């Protein structure tokens, strides 16, 4: 196929906002092929047998056990999914990578953090930026779990401001090695890793530089104590001190001063994978919760029959479903974009790098949305268990604690929210996504007289699609005016940015959910997708609510007088339902099905 | 003063919804008298010295240390505030009781639970329902901390459905004692208490009966292991097993079959005190967070300068301020109602009972609102600390874990939400609160043509007061229609009830906040209350948003066609701002002040 056709078919990163996507063009969990399904099954089996069966050990700060499980995962090939075959990996596509990340993460955040840190930020900088020699030397070991990797970016004084680290790399007189000195903090897998990806500054460079550093205590590397943490109790997290650690010059990653870019690109992949890694935890918690609710009797009836509980179970289910929809949609986009690049003659490495970079906006969106969903789901999980939810003997409280980290690492959710909008605006400036045209059109529409025709909403999702198209206009209206008003100073108007980010996130999540369901309903008929249709409607209803709230908040804060009134009117027009759904009925329908199945069953 | 005047001056429970309260008629933290201020100071001193200085010990499951602190609290008189002087207590008013509950609870949930369980549900059933002999015998010991109390209501099969317990009390042949057998669960203070309030069933009574049971292992009483819990790590929580435990007949509380009532009334007081007990934790977390945000530098600036952080600090501050406003307003109502009853000739015991019962709706409202605020506040506290928030070496994560219990015990928040509306509807049925009249008026207004006059909103809070009056109409519209539609079946429409409850809660919280600020602004001038005015406006803005959301959710779920349209129009009309506040500017103003003070300073 010609690269031109390929290019036309898939949206570029951020374009979802201004282009309409056909449901046929999104990938869904229901589209998994046989190989992917088998991969998923074996991942689930592994988790049940090796991880879930021992969840209590993970709560006891049994770091050695995490390492043991990682080693087993390596033996079974789970660490090598994403690694190119040339370096001993399976070289599977991005969807498969996400699948494993997703289903391997449901039992405990301890293992999933170890897994994510190793296969993601611990390995990727080498596969994405390494020289042939570096890849030959290190990647096969990392792919099999013979070696484990860790990623040393954060320092006591450099967290969100990752490029501000003080760790130094000094070239030796003979130019053969760099001597690295500095203090890294919060390093996952530090306790058992063989290799560190270390970011350090050479002289007074503006940007940091990446290095591959083998772990060797005799080479000036020492570790702090294990951090005492709220959750992920068996994930090793330590400070790492480098004291004149000698690193051969050939272990520099990419070029001098390229470290910040490496760090950010590794984090991009890390973010979407982290989102996936929050899905199975939600499925498990939802399933455990509904099981409990079916069994627990109060007032002579299983509590699952109470509307209060149904609302929770419906919400929990919808959150997973929406998260799945958006994660796998984006994953396939990335996979396709890589394929296009390869077809265009890029090396696989280059292609992967660019493919992921392309969807950095979606990666940030997913990281925020799904990490917050898993928090809410586990929170409701506790509540459904009542007093038992507060007990460490039931699996709810540790899921809640483990979930808390996902909103902090791989870039805090504040940072990722601002990145999502910031990157979009930059793409627009660069002409990669045309926001100006659509934003101008919205501006004109706002001045004009609204149509009073009653649209024909008889087809499935006709009104919902229309609404999503209008939500996009809300974003364009809000973000467009903010850009106009604040210009380059926009970044300092964080609360407006954050509100815009919330709108953007809801659009992507709701649209992905709708497209997935529409695709499946076209294939299988609406009856077969009755519950998914309900979930889609309910997700969108809540999304519209949030867009109203956030849109209003932004508008009343940066616009005044007539402009404010016009925008508030626009907001109303763009968020108006002709036929609002019966929210309670939708919730009950969803919850009743989940209760009847006694588990979450919508993951294709 | 005549009891008639007294009666007229203060609102009855639930009447806030249909009557306008003058700001002069609410009590605020700024109204504390000298004695109360001194009490507060000594409470704070005690906490700093004995509790906060050792917060790490509380995380180490040091149950003995909690007991030691309780004993010290007893020696210093903190356990006897609410206890009548006749029984060795200080006999202070309800406001003072709340004050101590509030300020003693900020350091750790472990101590605050022990304190609450002992002074509240562990002692109150005796002071409220005990015979003179029972009071003489037990209360002085409890007031000094010579003895500690615990409250045994919950059983493995009876949690929310508290009246369904299986514990039996069998009268002996000689009618001298009851023999109690059963299993109680989740009993706070079980590990070190000397006395249990036990609820058990006599024969096949419909309702349970209360007993005072002295702790004596030789009398068939044994304890389970300490529960492993998510939070409040040094609060003793155990199962308590009674095996033919002999209890003299004179230890029955009140009458046979009166236990459920006792349990509920003890919980009423427990709920409002629990709300108070969540306030100082919020103040402390807010203060710790702003201190950190002032110190932590990223991107070359203290993070407190970022809009994202300002929004959090503003929200945290507003939540405490609103919680204080509502808690102390209700506390004084209760204190006054007790005074009226005493003036009318009731015994102090009777008066207190009725006084608290009167405001059961407000107690449920406060329990829900403040327990959720403390969760949100601690959650943002973690987020402001970034990675450090996840560390057990900083005080955020334990505050978050400790906060989680408040939404579960003393009646889950679901139960309390439904109670709040349910009790209100019952009061209306009994004619204690006239809802029908106002609801009918709203119905008529909805049919009529809205006025297009532009109201004069120039006075302080003129628009805000108007809005609150309209929010009340939203509640009447939603709840009124629901009652009409579902009649006695309303209880099974929980999601509508829950939405109504949220509206009710926001009304009470927002109104209380406004009245407090208005009162203080009248006394001190608006300039002196600039920040509080901002907090009030912002709280109300958010409240209106939630009312819109919840109102809409209810309306689209139980009304259809024209009725739905009319109600949605009504909702719009009743929630409309003529001059919406600049949300971002308000937040920044509040956050800047808190940042400049480097702590929360609005507690009068
Ligand atoms: C358990 C755990 C494991 C980790 N694993 C690793 C690892 O393996 N490797 C690694 O390198 N790092 C790791 N980290 C570090 C993690 O990535 C950082 O904690 C995270 O990036 C936040 O940085 P910080 O903790 O310094 O918070 P800060 O950057 O100090 O942030 C504090 C608060 O300020 C906000 N903030 C900061 N800057 C801005 C801004 N410009 N605008 C608005 N708000 C802002 C943040 O959102 C946050 O709310 C880990 C952390 C933890 C807790
Ligand atoms: C740390 C701790 C300390 C405690 N201390 C004490 C104590 O000192 N003394 C004591 O007697 N008890 C104590 N309790 C028990 C506590 O009061 C109960 O846990 C609480 O009332 C909830 O009951 P449950 O745990 O059985 O949950 P359940 O009643 O089983 O509730 C489970 C879920 O169902 C919901 N639900 C239940 N009924 C309904 C309904 N009708 N409609 C809608 N939803 C419903 C609940 O809201 C909850 O979400 C303590 C509990 C804990 C965890």
TrEMBL record, chains A, B:
Gene3D superfamilies: Acyl-CoA dehydrogenase/oxidase, N-terminal domain, Butyryl-CoA Dehydrogenase, subunit A, domain 2, Butyryl-CoA Dehydrogenase, subunit A, domain 3. One of its GO terms (molecular function) is acyl-CoA dehydrogenase activity. Residues 257-419 form the Acyl-CoA dehydrogenase/oxidase C-terminal domain. Residues 150-243 form the Acyl-CoA oxidase/dehydrogenase middle domain. Keywords: FAD, Flavoprotein, Oxidoreductase. Residues 471-573 form the Acyl-CoA dehydrogenase-like C-terminal domain. The keyword Oxidoreductase applies. SUPFAM superfamilies: Acyl-CoA dehydrogenase C-terminal domain-like, Acyl-CoA dehydrogenase NM domain-like. The keyword DNA repair does not apply. It comes from the Bacteria. Its cofactor is FAD. Residues 33-146 form the Acyl-CoA dehydrogenase/oxidase N-terminal domain. InterPro entries: Acyl-CoA-dh-like_C (IPR049426), Acyl-CoA_DH_CS (IPR006089), Acyl-CoA_Oxase/DH_mid-dom (IPR006091), Acyl-CoA_Oxase/DH_mid-dom_sf (IPR046373), AcylCo_DH-like_C (IPR036250), AcylCo_DH/oxidase_C (IPR009075), AcylCoA_DH/ox_N (IPR013786), AcylCoA_DH/ox_N_sf (IPR037069). Belongs to the acyl-CoA dehydrogenase family. This is Acyl-CoA dehydrogenase.
């Amino acid at each position: 196929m010609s690269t031109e056709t390929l290019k036309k078919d898939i949206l570029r990163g951020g374009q979802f906002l201004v282009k309409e996507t056909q449901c046929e063009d999104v990938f869904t969990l229901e589209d998994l092929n046989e190989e992917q399904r088998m991969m998923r099954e074996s991942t689930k089996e592994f988790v049940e047998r090796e991880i879930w069966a021992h969840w209590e050990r993970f709560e006891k700060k049994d770091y050695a056990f995490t390492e043991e499980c990682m080693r087993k995962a390596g033996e079974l090939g789970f660490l090598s999914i994403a690694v190119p075959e040339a370096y001993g990996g399976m070289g599977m596509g991005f969807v498969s990578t996400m699948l494993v990340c997703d289903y391997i993460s449901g039992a405990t955040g301890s293992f999933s953090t170890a897994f994510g840190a190793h296969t993601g930020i611990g390995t990727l900088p080498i596969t994405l930026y390494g020289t042939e020699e570096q890849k030959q030397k290190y990647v096969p070991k990392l792919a099999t779990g013979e070696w484990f990797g860790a990623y040393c970016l954060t320092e006591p004084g450099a967290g969100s401001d990752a490029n501000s680290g003080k760790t130094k790399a000094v070239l030796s007189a003979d130019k053969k090695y760099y001597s690295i000195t500095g203090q890294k903090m919060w390093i996952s897998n530090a306790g058992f890793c063989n290799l560190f990806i270390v970011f350090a500054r050479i002289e007074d460079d503006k940007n940091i530089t990446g290095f591959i550093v083998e772990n060797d205590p005799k080479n000036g590397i020492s570790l702090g104590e294990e951090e005492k943490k709220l959750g992920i109790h068996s994930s090793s997290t330590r400070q790492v001190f480098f004291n004149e650690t000698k690193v051969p010059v050939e272990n520099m990653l990419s070029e001098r001063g390229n470290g910040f870019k490496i760090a950010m690109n590794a984090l991009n992949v890390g973010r979407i994978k982290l989102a996936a890694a929050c899905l199975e935890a939600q499925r498990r918690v939802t399933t455990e919760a509904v099981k409990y609710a079916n069994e627990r009797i109060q007032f002579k009836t299983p509590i699952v029959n109470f509307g209060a509980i149904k609302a929770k179970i419906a919400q929990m289910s919808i959150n997973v479903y929406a998260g799945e929809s958006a994660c796998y949609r984006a994953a396939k986009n990335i996979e396709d974009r890589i394929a296009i690049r390869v077809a265009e003659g890029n090396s696989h490495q280059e292609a992967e790098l660019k493919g992921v970079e392309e969807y950095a906006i979606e990666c940030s969106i997913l990281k925020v949305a799904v990490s917050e969903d898993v928090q809410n789901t586990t929170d409701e999980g506790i509540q459904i268990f009542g007093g038992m939810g507060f007990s460490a003997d039931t699996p709810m409280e540790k899921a809640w604690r483990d979930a808390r980290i996902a909103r902090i690492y791989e870039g805090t959710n504040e940072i990722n929210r601002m990145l999502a909008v910031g990157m979009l605006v930059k793409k627009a400036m660069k002409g990669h996504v045309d926001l100006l045209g659509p934003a101008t059109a919205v501006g004109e529409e706002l001045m004009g007289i609204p149509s009073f025709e009653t649209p024909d909403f008889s087809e499935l999702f006709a009104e919902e699609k229309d609404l999503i198209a209008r939500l996009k206009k809300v974003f364009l209206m809000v973000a467009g005016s903010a850009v106009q008003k604040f210009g380059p100073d926009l970044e300092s108007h964080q609360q407006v940015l954050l509100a815009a980010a919330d709108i953007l996130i809801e659009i992507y999540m709701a649209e992905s959910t709708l497209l997935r369901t529409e695709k499946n309903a076209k294939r299988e008929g609406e009856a077969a997708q009755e519950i998914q249709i309900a979930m889609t409607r309910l997700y969108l209803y809540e999304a519209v609510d949030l867009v109203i709230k956030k849109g209003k908040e932004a508008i009343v804060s940066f616009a005044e007088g007539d402009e404010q009134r016009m925008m508030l009117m626009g907001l109303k027009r763009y968020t108006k339902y002709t036929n609002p759904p019966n929210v309670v009925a939708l919730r009950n329908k969803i919850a009743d099905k989940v209760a009847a199945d006694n588990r979450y069953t919508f993951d294709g």
